Amino acid sequence: MKKAVVLLALLALVGCDEDDVKDILNGQTKVFAVSGVEVEGSATGLPDGYYKLSDLNDGTKASLPDSLPDGIKADLTNAGITVHAQSCGQIVVDEGLCFESGNKACVPDEIKKVGLDVYKIDLDDIKTAQNLDFYPTLAAELGGLFVQIDYDDVSCATLK
User: Cα separation of 128 and 77, whole Å?
Assistant: First the structure.
């Protein structure tokens, strides 16, 4: 009975994603950082297309929220966080995307897709990763500012 209660609590925390439940039971979770964005109709004159964050012009970078999760893998490893797996994801922005509750830290309308680098780390390291500009996929774990953001797993090669 105790295991059933724990499992139900985990499902409430992470949703019904079987992989997330397995990760939690193994003491791991995922965090992500924005690796790039697809721009369409930029007011800064940037041609339409997909850009890595490092390749964006200053005008487009200035239009992105200050609290955009933009850490890199080296940030995690330099902080002593073990990365157990790495993958990619994307968020198609149909009706706006905000990284904080209360419609704060929202990407501008010219951003149509957000590419993500996703890292599996130990659950104990989630708050450290958050302080290093990574976004927890289990936003409910940290509460407060974070909103639950769903993303699609994609091949890293498709983020171009």
Answer: 11
